[in-house]
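Quick check before the chapter quiz. The format below is the same one you will see on the exam, so make sure you can read both the input and the output lines.
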Amino acid sequence: MHTIVRINVENVEEVLFLMNKAITPSVLKQEGCRRVQIYRNLDTRNELNIISEWNTEEDARNYFKIDKTQRLWDSLPNAHLIGAIRYVNLVYESTPG
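Here is the expected output.
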């Protein structure tokens, strides 16, 4: 189970530094969180896609509804959420070989 959070930022390097320092460790401490990955959109350079992997949908939804979450996201300078947080399940995976 994964979540996708899309944000638009003015200073990508600054936001990545803060993500690494504060947000990612906080997310990883939450019950059920397995991993956090950040992707930069190649077409829209100021857009970051934050993908987190969770044990269950309940774990993910519990994290994103706690009050602390909003304070963490608000701590990112000039970062704006694009759309809603999306909850997705992997339905197919292909690997070489």
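If your answer matched, good. The chain is about 35% helix and 30% strand.
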